Task: inverse folding
């Protein structure tokens, strides 16, 4: 995993440790959600926990997968991480691995989305097209034969949710003329904007946050349909943390939005609050994967 710019400063480790009171708690955070999500969001959580607990926190990030990489030493087994932000699919794999050092932290973020009127945790998959195709395309089934971009065959919002929607209509991945693996939700958005792809399914939160950085603030991107809600992004913790520390972290995150300053900062990333979460909601991920068990994408690498 790679350190964020904030934690990779050559002067920081020695200087930061020297300023900390003796015996102060150290907390090691990691995120597998970048670059589809901005690393600044996870830096925000790091800074908040550092101030609220208080503790000395560091943040690492890994951009090559949604969770611990299969060909690398597991950071929970190796006791090199205390908290990790992972995808729902990665969390289900961690559950299936029966790793005794992995636990779900019972808290998840509520993201703002036009379809999330109830303010529940979870996220959506947005089907996007370029505005130039708007006259001829009004729904997913109008995209037959198009060049379709997706982040990864493992992505719930970029691949699995769409395969399920197609299967329900009696279709499969052959419905699209060409499927292009972009490598990330942000790259899928950029490919649609530049017309390298005619359409894509992307994490709605990736699109929402990054619009302000796109050409003309992404005005040429149209959301055709949205699927979801999908299970919320899990936060997992190292079981070696004390019960007291896990409870402190949970309670700190649950009240984060109540502080005007931190609440405003959360809102900048499209988060209204953090609420309780539990393992049962991830059965929906298993059910979705099971429903498309014999369906796969044909990959053209970009």
Result:
């Amino acid at each position: 995993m790679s350190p964020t710019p904030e934690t990779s400063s050559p002067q920081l480790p020695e200087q930061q440790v020297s300023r900390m009171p003796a015996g102060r708690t150290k907390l090691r955070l990691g995120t597998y959600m970048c670059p589809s999500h901005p690393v600044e969001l996870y830096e925000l959580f790091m800074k908040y926990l550092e101030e609220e607990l208080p503790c000395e926190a560091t943040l690492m990030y890994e951009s090559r997968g949604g969770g611990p990489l299969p060909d690398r030493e597991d950071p929970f087994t190796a006791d090199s991480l205390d908290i990790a932000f992972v995808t729902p699919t990665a969390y289900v794999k961690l559950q299936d691995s029966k790793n005794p050092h992995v636990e779900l932290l019972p808290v998840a973020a509520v993201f703002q989305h036009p379809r999330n009127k109830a303010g529940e945790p979870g996220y959506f998959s947005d089907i996007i097209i370029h505005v130039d195709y708007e006259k001829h395309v009004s729904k997913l089934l109008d995209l037959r034969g198009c060049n379709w971009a997706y982040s990864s065959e493992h992505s719930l919002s970029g691949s699995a949710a769409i395969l399920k929607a197609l299967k329900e209509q009696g279709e499969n991945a052959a419905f699209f003329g060409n499927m292009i693996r972009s490598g990330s939700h942000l790259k899928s958005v950029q490919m649609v904007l530049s017309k390298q792809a005619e359409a894509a399914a992307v994490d709605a939160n990736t699109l929402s946050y990054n619009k302000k950085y796109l050409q003309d603030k992404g005005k040429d991107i149209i959301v055709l349909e949205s699927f979801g809600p999908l299970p919320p992004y899990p936060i997992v913790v190292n079981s070696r943390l004390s019960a007291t520390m896990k409870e402190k972290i949970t309670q700190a995150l649950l009240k984060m939005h109540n502080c005007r300053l931190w609440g405003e900062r959360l809102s900048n990333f499209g988060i209204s609050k953090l609420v309780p979460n539990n393992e049962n909601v991830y059965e929906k991920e298993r059910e979705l994967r099971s429903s498309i068990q014999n369906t796969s994408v044909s990959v053209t690498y970009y």
About this structure: The longest strand covers residues 221-230. Residues 2-22 have pLDDT under 50 and may be disordered. The chain has nine helices and 14 strands.
